[in-house]
Amino acid sequence: MRYISKKGTTKTRIPAEELITQGISADLQVNIDNLKVLLNRCSEAVIREFTLGRESSTRCVLLYFDGISDKAEIEEHLIKPLLQESANIDQLSLEGIKCLQSIKDKVLSLSQLSYINTLEEICHHINSGDAVLLVDGSNQGLSAGTRYWESRSIQTPENELTIQGPKDGFNETLRYNTALIRRRLKTTQLKTEILVIGRLSKTDVLLSYIEDIAPPSMVAVVRDRLLKINLDGILDSGYLETYISDCKWTMFSQVEYTERPDRTCAHLLEGGVAIMVDGSPMALLAPITFPQFLISAEDYYQNFVAGSIYRILRFLAFFAALTLPSFYVAITSFHHEMIPTDLYLAIASTREGIPFPAVVEAFLLELTFELLREAGLRLPRAIGPAVSIVGALIIGEAAVRAGLVSGLMVVVVAFTGIASFAIPFYNASVIIRVARFGILLAAGFLGLPGIIMALLLMLIRMENIQSLGKPYLSPLSPLEPAQISDILVRRPWPMNIRRPYLPGMLNRNRQSAVPKKGG
Amino acid sequence: MAKKFLITLLLISFLLLGGCLDSTQVGDTIVVLAHGWDTDGKTKLFSAQMALTPPREGEMETGPKFMVVSERAPSFAEAARNLSLSLPRLPLWSMADTIVIGEELARLNTNLFTDIATRNPRIRYNVLLFVAKGTTPSEIFQVEVPPEDYSGTALERIIENQTGQAGIYFPMNMKDFLFETSTSGVEPSLPQIILEGRGDQTKLKIQGMAVFKGCQMVGSLNEQQSRGLALLKPGAIKRTIFNIKQPGTDGPGILSDNIAIELTSYQVKAKPSIKGKDIVMNISIKAKGNIIEDNSNHNTDEPQIAKAIEQAAAQALRRDIESCINQAQALNSDIMGWGLSISRSHPELWQEIEGDWPEIFAGIPSNIKVEFKLIQTYLQKDVFPLR
Description:
The complex is a heterodimer. Helix content of chain A is about 45%, strand content about 10%. Chain A is α+β, with helices and mostly antiparallel strands. Chain A has three domains: about 15-145, no CATH class; about 175-290, no CATH class; about 300-470, no CATH class. In chain A, strand 4 and strand 5 form a beta hairpin. The longest helix of chain A is centred in the middle third of the chain and has 30 residues, at about 305-335. Chain A is elongated. Chain A starts with 15 loop residues before the first helix and ends in a 35-residue tail after the last helix. Chain B is of the alpha/beta class. Chain B is about 30% helix and about 30% strand. In chain B, strands 1, 2, 3, 4, 5, 6, 7, 8 and 9 form a nine-stranded mixed sheet that branches. The termini of chain B are far apart. The interface between A and B is medium-sized, with 28 and 26 residues.
């Protein structure tokens, strides 16, 4: 059966995408109707209509989303003053735009109040946790900062633990994170620009830098790259990495992720930018060079001798994590004469009866290790340790006893695993883990020349990468002798006079030179 | 794109060129600890000591730790290759640290093995050489040398350790041996291994140095002469211990008339002094040492006693050196390398005398000057009073 609609009775319905671009109408009912369309089936949306003035002649509506707005504050500082105070103020002009201004100036006691003009702005503000007040006769709205939601408190960073130094870490609330930075850098030169990115998510992305240190051209490039992002949603800072990287098609990460505010501040003081995303506890630091991945924040909190020794240890751990299984495979498969006789016999006794070539054995064990690590990350905490023990001890022991792998190879892989945990940054250890498999394969085919070729290829690739204009291997290549002493070892603070080089940096001096004794 | 394709192709070709098949797994190999080269006059005898894989951790050790294999063939290369007819694993020749040369081969012609040694990349230049005196290399390899598991590796440790203890002999590696064999004005000398005792009590021992002239072994140095030779070679030994007569006494003392001196450092200079065609070798040695044992009850703190000891020590060292020179000249073998030092300091003269050098060498007088300085007595206070 067909329904024949009567002429003139059919309402043309404007699609939501078009509707949202419209401005706020002076007719409150139109606004309410439009917003009801836009907020249709949004169960947590609250639309509270009421009247103002002694005569209750002015209609208005208050909108907010339950759960992300502070209900108590809305009731205490918005609805209550509006209903009570507006009736008591004789001079309150209740006509249109003046009404809104009078409310802002004389009635509401909230600090964050701003005018908004479009339905899109209304939606953005209420989606962000603000409350929006619309008054009949006014083609503007009033947004009140009432954002509040349950969030994690400031906790110790889980992935970047240090013994000395601050223990606080970022959480998922952007404002808390900016507060952690602002507490450490109490200067108005610290700029914290908010960019709204994500077509649907409208995520607040914070671009932070110190104005009189960071190169303006670099900041402009980052800002430009961020604003060009046309993705529908930004759910984590990791989404932005590829967009802001100079070289996109590579496994070498050109940004550093950190959940430590002290690390972020140190980076800002060296002229870099920090990017934070609302909803993500990880700040994104750029530009970054590869050697910086081996530097822990803690190096700078302890005595420079201890810091230097641990840094050298970390460099050794880096090489061990990258090449140890490959060296083992290359030497035991191709270059036997390099092994002292006693050690060779010890290796021979452990490999007696093993059916696989060393490269296959190493590959299998490395894969198992990675599998255990990956499984350990996903497992519920209650059973995680149990499975780790089963994996590490029982499977390892059983594999050795069954003659599938040699005990020495287990030691090599375990040592490599421990060495990779000494790398302070997760994304750096990911690079090492991936590269390790490539080098292992090269070692299995070509021995030591294979390892050298693979390392050279890796170096050539890194040599071709820049992170926001800064060479990826800086200060090792191009060589900066003055900065080397703060990469390979930790320089004492009084000697740390200049900041690491960044093209276009506005101020390279950290401190004025310390006068020499007697000079 | 074409560039990337070419690079990828190049990388793949590297993999194929190298080839996984070229690798040799540890389990497919057997470690060669030492090889021996000998001859019976007609055929060449090649023998090797090979380590058997030790049992895994936790497993009981049963059976021998090594095996000795020997092959006879017209050439050493063939003999070594023939071993593969009975060996299921690939021998790692390059892992051998020691080569033992049979006395018969050494006396016949060392070129018979130096030729293959220089051609074969699996023989390392730092491998140590020994001469089996009165025995064969394979007999030496059969001997057990506790606490070492293998005589092949034990030989290397014995010779290295004694340079800092007894300090009589010095090691000679393949590189130095080849140099001294192929260079005029210097002749090689190698430590000799002998077997002592019988049956299970058999033990190996370093005794004397084999002296070569050209490519033939012509004789040996005894212990005293060997120390004299070591003292003439800078840095050949680190320490040595020798006895001197008790100063001021002619006959034997109450307990012993000897004072044992430990030589801790020495410097040696050997310069030819040439007047016309008269060559005299000026040898100057400055040595330092300590008293390590003294049964004489003398107070060595007294300057005249200390001086007397120093003179006696210098005399003892001089005797060793003289004895060595006498033996070398008797054998017509310039193991001290005097000819080499003349060729360096007086090349024109060397060109004239090079052809007649063995005869000239035998008659060259030497002027030996030894200075010995006593450093300490190892006593904190006085001499322990003997009753």
